[in-house]
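Final report, Chapter 2: Outcomes

The project's central promise was a pipeline that accepts a single protein chain and returns its three-dimensional structure in a standardized token representation, suitable for archiving and comparison. That pipeline is now operational. To close this chapter, we reproduce one record exactly as it appears in the project archive, with the input sequence first and the structure output second.
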Amino acid sequence: MAPEIPLRTVVLVPLKNFSDAKSRLREVLTAHDVETLTRELARAVLEAVKPYETLVVCDDDDVAAFAVQCGVEVVRTAERSLNGAVSEAYRSLAEYDQATIVHADLRAPEGLGGYQPGPGITIVTDHRGTGTNVLSLPTGLDFHFCYGPGSAQLHEREAQRLGIACGVTTNSPWQFDVDEPDDLESSPDSI
């Protein structure tokens, strides 16, 4: 029996300009506090995905410098929307077999460096079951990224459109992200 060849996997972490990120949190926090929190969350995610090869997807010099400081390579994109930026980066991954897109605002990213998704497409939802916090898929697909409201269901429909098996995980340590003011006050155990 031939030994199993591991898939060459890359992690994409899209990062928005820190001064524009987390608009809903700016209702309850100062701009400085939001930027500090955004950087801390992103740094923790970038640390947690090691040893995977990781690329930060961005269109901003400050974010690119932050990624390099964290020891991560950068994919610069002209796209400003999350879906456009991830699509552009994803289409450039010909030398990889698998891509995992991880959002940089996970509250408990520990364990991502050992994550081995199943075959096909895997969606890890947010704690509400509607958002996509982690998405893993083979490279080279004509996959249309659908981040935004209801993205988990939209990504599942994309897998169906492509005829690819799709697994959805709704109870994961990575289901807790920080988007809303309530996400700051509640603990993962109480959500």
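Archive annotation: The longest helix spans residues 31-48.
This record, like all others produced under the grant, will remain available to the consortium after the project formally closes.
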